[in-house]
Design a protein that fits this description.
With 254 residues, this protein is of the alpha+beta class. It has helices spanning 3-14, 47-52, 55-70, 114-124, 135-142, 150-157, 164-174, 183-186, 224-228, 236-243, and strands spanning 20-23, 35-38, 74-75, 79-81, 92-95, 102-108, 214-216. The radius of gyration is 18 Å and the shape is globular.
Length: 254
């Protein structure tokens, strides 16, 4: 397990949250205290679809099925817990980036309700095209080989069609978008600026506010260098690793 993922999972333990990590494979270096469970307890994992898309593709379905079954808060493994989450808040999600669309990197929604029903129906009964797509996306998808499975064609057309795009669309349809937190709560640093986490001269904490609960590191958007090399001394990632006793040099991407 990469050092940033170790760091983020451990940060939730340190803040007093129980953490369950659902896996399809055996992992090394999982922080002590994290409960590891097979992903198959939540849903069947079609490895063929994963191979044709990405691991994050099925996580967009998995997170809502997990919430429905366990009533837990979903956290991506690159979400650093800055403050404890509220115990009684039924809706935990926020906009992110420069455009404000909802992200689903940290999510709590009611187990039963219009939003959960809409999301699961979308994934279980895929339409020919996502309802929010315009002519440009539809034409792009129409150019793909029709023998390719529909979820793969949608993913190849727009990879966020199963993540933030879907979450934002259905939250708007059900009115739950009005319950969204501000970006400073869960995504204080826009993903367009994610390299600041590795810059020893940046002042990352100036992005934080009194509302900040979680800090998204956006590892998928990070330059490959930071996944294969330890963070520079004095950078936010290096300081947090030191604070939580994570050794970055022991878990670098090969």
């Amino acid at each position: 397990m990469h050092y940033v993922n170790q760091l983020c999972l451990k940060s939730h333990l340190v803040q007093g949250h129980p953490v369950t990590l659902y896996c399809t494979d055996t992992l090394r270096n999982v922080p002590q205290g994290v409960v590891v469970r097979p992903a198959g307890e939540i849903m069947d994992i079609d490895r063929r679809i994963v191979e044709e898309t990405s691991a994050s593709f099925l996580s967009n379905v998995f997170r809502y099925k997990m919430i429905q079954k366990t009533d837990a808060i979903w956290i991506d493994c690159d979400a650093f817990c800055y403050r404890p989450f509220p115990d009684t808040q039924a809706h935990i999600y926020a906009g992110h980036g420069m455009r404000g669309a909802l992200n689903c990197g940290v999510v709590a929604i009611p187990q039963k309700g219009a939003l959960m029903d809409a999301l699961l129906d979308y994934y279980d009964n895929l339409p020919d095209y996502p309802a929010w797509w315009g002519p440009k996306q539809r034409k792009k998808m129409d150019k793909l080989d029709p023998s390719i499975p529909k979820p793969v064609r949608i993913y190849q057309t727009e990879r966020t069609a199963f993540g933030p795009q879907a979450f934002t669309h259905f939250a708007r349809e059900t009115g739950d978008i009005d319950k969204a937190m501000g970006a400073d709560t869960l995504y204080p640093v826009p993903f367009q600026l994610n390299d600041v986490f590795y810059d020893p001269y940046s002042q990352v904490e100036k992005h934080f506010t009194e509302n900040t609960l979680s800090v998204h590191i956006y590892t998928n958007a990070a330059r490959p260098w930071w996944r294969k090399n330890p963070p520079l001394e004095g950078s936010y990632i290096a300081r947090m690793c030191q604070q939580l006793s994570i050794d970055p040099t022991a878990a670098l991407e090969q």
